[in-house]
Amino acid sequence: MFYADRVTMFRISETAALLGVSADTVRRWVDAGRLTATRQEHGHRIVSGTDLAAFVREQARGGDEPGARFSSARNRMRGIVTDVVRDGVMAQVEIQAGPFRVVSLMSREAADELGLEVGVVAEAVIKSTNVVVELPDPG
Questions:
Q1: How many CB atoms lie within 10 A of CB 42?
Q2: What is the DSSP secondary structure assignment for residue 15, as one 8-state letter?
Q3: Looking at the whole model, is its pTM more than 0.70?
Q4: Are strands 121-126 and 7-11 parallel, antiparallel or unpaired?
Q5: Distance CA 138, CA 124 (A)
Q6: What is the pLDDT of residues 89-135, one digit of tens each?
């Protein structure tokens, strides 16, 4: 990651890591015109942070897809259930969504009704008034 005229620029490998896909997938998206990239003086392709943000926003929209749900929650992460711990009243459900581990506490009844078991694909939907945003150390 580097900056050009105050715009964050990402190499293909960095773009892939941010999106949770392979570098080959990013190259295919660039070659197909789905994602904009330019070439550095040495021929390496780079993606501007603003172009990457626009691409991610468009991919996340999903409102036009068949079966799309409408909700005020904007934070959705699809993943696989990796653990479910139930007791008499509550359940703790862990979902691995790409590189992110999401833990939810819910009623046991809700976990049972949803059929949450290890190996089930689920979507963590997060709506929060408190979100901490951190930046990596620029050094």
A1: 5
A2: H
A3: no
A4: unpaired
A5: 31
A6: 999 999 998 888 999 999 999 999 999 999 999 999 888 777 788 88
